[in-house]
Amino acid sequence: MAQLIDGKKISSEIKEELKAEVEALKRQGKEICLAVVQVGQDPASCVYVNNKKKACAYIGIRSEAYELPETVGEEELLALVEKLNQAGHVNGILVQLPLPAHIDEDKVIRAISPDKDVDGFHPVSVGRLWIGEPGFLSCTPAGIIQLLKRSGISIDGKECVIVGRSNIVGKPMAALLLREHATVTVAHSHTKNLKEITNRADILIVAMGKRQFIGADYVKDGAVVIDVGMHRDENNKLCGDVAFAQVCEKTSAITPVPGGVGPMTIAMLMNNCVQTVR
User: What is the pLDDT of residues 81-95, one digit of tens each?
Assistant: First the structure.
């Protein structure tokens, strides 16, 4: 039977460690403040923002909410970001994505100071990641590294295949796995012979955005499978990019959806916030 990689449990362990660290920092007179900017009231964004606020409260990080109307102008949003860049008490800035169509997301991401970019999306943060300099790591890929390490799964020397090449998961995931001395292949929508490539993987990370696409025939016996996808199936139950019921029989370890990668993203965001004062 495959080892079930429990993201809820591991994220709770990380949050407990961070809570103790924040308490120690407070005793030294160091406070942490995260500014969370949300434009509009997209239901999914509201859930994510609320979860981030709860995590801050639990760990002992102060959070400031800036809720702007859907109709806010790009210049007004950029002016707020610059004000937060200059605010001495604000350690981290998070602008919840997606933004409305009339706002240039890339321009907003670039406006955030790299020293307060706790999402790890700024080009400077991305550059630091690829050349191995200290900086903020993209939260979902950093969470996946923690899932593997804290589950006793060695990455060094392993053949790792990532399905998906997004700036949020696929590309930073490749950089982090290379840091851990893995051999990395990134597959995507133009990849030929996908099945042949995924069947080489000791560790298969799937972030392709296609519901239950990866079946047992894509996975070699004994592989570790990390499912980053999040969808609803025909019964309205949460599921991932991997057909869990058939794939888990072949794996040595696998993440469930929900309860796998998801909880780790917020845990690593909190880690980035604490990093601002370490």
Answer: 999 999 999 999 999
